[in-house]
């Protein structure tokens, strides 16, 4: 954490987290030297047309913004430049492109619990999505071409009424840079920004989510409803006649209140909820079981010889002897926990190491579920 990183402009991780993370923007020239991108524009458009891929098409024509979501056909992108400015954005590229997952790994100095995805956007000259702000941290890495970034830390976040995007009504540019291939801009949440393509341009956005407390509270209550058990039923053998039968009585309120106050939770419940919630795949993500699965014995042999790697779409977290994978929790012994924590950290396990029986059994089950696969020979 005290090694100076080119990715952070010569800062150490600790310096970056102390001085910039969630605080202020940081421009880093040649954060990834030699980086030209992982896809060309046509490959990104092809990916946007794949089923189960989340993508958006933003157009600006006749002074009007329009937004379309997937599904797309290749014909949807034909002739757009003749009609106006446009941009295509594809979410979760790390779920479909191994090199995208490897790029995301470079940002492992931020906890996996905060990682959202790698989004890639393409725009021809003049294209963009307009001045806006986001509620998450993002590293904007330039690939193909050049993009002009205008940023503002303004407090006025009034939005354009009726626009299909969250566009800032009165965007006041405070700083401005043109980024070329390998340059990167870090932006904290709620920092206004406007990216404009100077030529055919592709940007790689490594995003880190910041869940709303309201969202977490609502989902925690959903989590609790399957785990609470309050015995008894409502009873009122001492019921008395009321002057107003429509009025809820004080006795009913007190009895029901006593029952509801029996709902309890502790830090372990919160940790288990967070692990399950944050590792839960997005609704459009599905896993495919192996077409011809190995027997448990053959899988064990492959594990020893080659190791395993997580499927690109798998989310894996851990806490206090509990492993969370794709929304499920598994409490394990310490030996197994150490092995699976290594898998969660690195997203792969090397060969030639000792696996406990407990770890092998879990890994085999996850292999059958499509959550991981043996490493290539």
Automatic annotation (TrEMBL):
Question: JmjC domain location, by residue?
Answer: 99-225
**One GO MF term:** 2-oxoglutarate-dependent dioxygenase activity
Q: Which cofactor does it need?
A: Fe(2+)
Cite the Pfam families for this sequence: JmjC_2, WHD_ROXA
Which PROSITE patterns does the record cross-reference, listed alphabetically? JMJC
Give EC number(s), comma-separated.
1.14.11.-
Q: Which Gene3D superfamilies match?
A: 50S ribosomal protein L16 arginine hydroxylase, Chain A, Domain 2 (3.40.366.30), Cupin (2.60.120.650)
Q: Which UniProt keywords apply?
A: Dioxygenase, Iron, Metal-binding, Oxidoreductase
**Know the name of this protein?**
Putative ribosomal oxygenase
């Amino acid at each position: 954490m005290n090694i100076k990183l080119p990715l952070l402009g010569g800062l150490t991780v600790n310096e970056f987290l102390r001085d910039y993370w969630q605080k202020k923007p940081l421009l880093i020239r040649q954060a990834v030297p030699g980086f030209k991108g992982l896809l060309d524009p046509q490959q990104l458009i092809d990916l946007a047309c794949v089923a189960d891929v989340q993508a958006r098409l933003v157009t600006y024509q006749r002074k009007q913004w329009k937004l379309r979501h997937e599904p797309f056909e290749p014909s949807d992108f034909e002739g757009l430049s003749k009609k106006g400015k446009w941009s295509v954005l594809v979410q979760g590229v790390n779920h479909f492109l191994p090199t995208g997952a490897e790029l995301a790994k470079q940002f492992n100095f931020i906890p996996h619990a905060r990682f959202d995805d790698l989004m890639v956007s393409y725009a021809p000259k003049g294209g963009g999505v307009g001045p806006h702000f986001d509620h998450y941290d993002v590293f904007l890495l330039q690939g193909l071409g050049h993009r002009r970034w205008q940023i503002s830390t303004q407090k006025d976040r009034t939005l354009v009424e009726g626009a299909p995007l969250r566009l800032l009504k009165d965007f006041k540019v405070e700083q401005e840079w043109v980024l070329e291939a390998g340059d990167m801009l870090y932006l904290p949440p709620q920092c206004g920004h406007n990216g404009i393509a100077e030529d055919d341009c592709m940007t790689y956005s490594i995003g880190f989510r910041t869940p709303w407390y309201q969202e977490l509270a609502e989902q925690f209550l959903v989590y609790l409803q399957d785990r609470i058990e309050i015995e008894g039923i409502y009873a009122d053998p001492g019921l008395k006649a009321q002057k107003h039968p429509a009025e809820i009585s004080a006795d009913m309120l007190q009895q029901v209140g006593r029952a509801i106050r029996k709902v309890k939770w502790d830090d372990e419940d919160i940790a288990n909820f967070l692990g399950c919630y944050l590792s839960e795949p997005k609704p459009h993500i599905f896993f495919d079981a192996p077409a011809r699965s190995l027997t448990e014995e053959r899988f064990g042999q492959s594990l020893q010889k080659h190791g395993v790697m997580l499927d690109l779409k798998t989310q894996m977290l851990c806490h206090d002897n509990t492993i969370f994978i794709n929304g499920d929790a598994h409490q394990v012994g310490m030996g197994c926990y150490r092995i699976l924590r290594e898998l969660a950290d690195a997203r792969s396990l090397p060969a030639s190491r000792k696996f406990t029986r407990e770890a092998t059994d879990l890994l085999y089950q996850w292999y059958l579920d499509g959550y991981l696969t043996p490493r290539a020979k």
